[in-house]
Known about the structure:
The strands form three sheets. A six-stranded mixed beta sheet has the order 10-9-8-11-13-12, with helices on both faces. A five-stranded antiparallel beta sheet has the order 3-2-1-4-5, with no helix packed on it. Strands 6-7 form a two-stranded antiparallel ribbon. The longest helix is centred in the last third of the chain and has 27 residues, at about 340-365. β8 (about 125-135), α4 (about 140-155) and β9 (about 155-160) form a beta-alpha-beta unit. The chain is globular, with a radius of gyration of 24 Å. By secondary structure, the protein is α/β, with parallel strands linked by helices. The chain folds into three domains: about 5-95, CATH 2.40.50.140; about 100-260, P-loop containing nucleotide triphosphate hydrolases (Rossmann fold, 3-Layer(aba) Sandwich); about 275-365, Probable gtpase engc, domain 3 (Ribonucleotide Reductase Protein R1, domain 1, Orthogonal Bundle), CATH 1.10.40.50. The chain has helices spanning about 5, 15-20, 70-75, 140-155, 170-180, 195-200, 215-225, 275-280, 280-290, 305-310, 315-335, 340-365, and strands at about 30-40, 40-50, 60-65, 80-85, 90-95, 100-105, 115-125, 125-135, 155-160, 185, 205-210, 250, 260. The protein has twelve helices and 13 strands. About 35% of the residues lie in helices and about 20% in strands. Belongs to the TRAFAC class YlqF/YawG GTPase family. RsgA subfamily. It is an enzyme of class 3 (hydrolase). It comes from Nocardia uniformis.
Amino acid sequence: MSLVDLDLxxxxxxTSALAAEYLPLLDNSLIPARVIRMERSECxxxxxxxxxxxxxxxxxxxxxxxxxxSDSEIxxxxxxxxxxxxxERMVRKLLPRRTAIVRAAVSGHSDSxxxxxxxxxxxxxxxxxxxxxxxxxxxxxxIERLLALAWESGAQPVVVLTKADLAxxxxxxxxxxxxxxxxxxxxxxxSGVGMDVLAAVLDGTVALIGPSGxxxxxxxxxxLGSEVFATNAVREGDKRGRHTTVHRELRPxxxxxTLIDTPGLRSVGLWEASTGIGRTFSDLESFASACRFxxxxxxxxxxxxxxxxxxxGELSQRRLDSYRKLHRENEWMAAxxxxxxxxxxxxxxxxxxxxxxxxxxxxxxxxx
Length: 368
């Protein structure tokens, strides 16, 4: 395996920086490969096929590789991962992830004993396209949730209002207010409107996320320049999609970089996303830093800069409500995933319940 031959992996995201980081982790029997698609205990990977002789050169091919079932780390592979495989096409090592889009998932019953877990949607992503259909319900709260997920991953988010040719009124300014620090644009894969601007902001590995019916696969096909991913029309009644995409799959982009299409997300739970929430609501947190009290709840405290911004119209009540909702959810999931936090929260609730019982007893014993 030579460094010159590894350059053939450039269309799949290989760089000189990755070579410097990954090659010291490999021995001569292992070859780097990128996961294109996962399917149970097997995965499709793009890898270097070594030359048969010194007079020939190697080439890159997409092959089917197996994953050892006994290795819990490798069993959690996802599209976009870089791995090391052996000559028997067995994945032997998961190479360090630069970024990862992670959402929360709760296994078991929906009660206090359910086990908290996470799911990696895509790895080593540089740009996240948060997609929503401009001709339907542009849900700002859902966009903020997906932005928190994207910011937390370490990638750069771009909000794309798709199907721009079908929309009578595109709320670009409202979305920009809900997405500080992120590029917001409207595009139509069908008419080509805005596609040149979108292509110009893409960098490295690009992942598309959003609900079913947002036009992700149609947008992906337009960026790839061919009908790679299956598409389907949304239901006329509620504009909902039909989950046409069922796998996460990576493909090289014609102009450089790679693209990962993902299935529609019906629910997105946050997983350890405090940084992502902070980036999504950087405007609100900027106002909060000017509050008189460091622990201001932004209710009726004197000197609350957040309430003042809402009263002046600089900030909306909807945005504050959304911020609180995502923070509560993030703390709740953190408590489920951390036994210490969970025990502390249960102790606090027992204390509150004890105080309430004492209060009711005192009220009942007072003379009338």
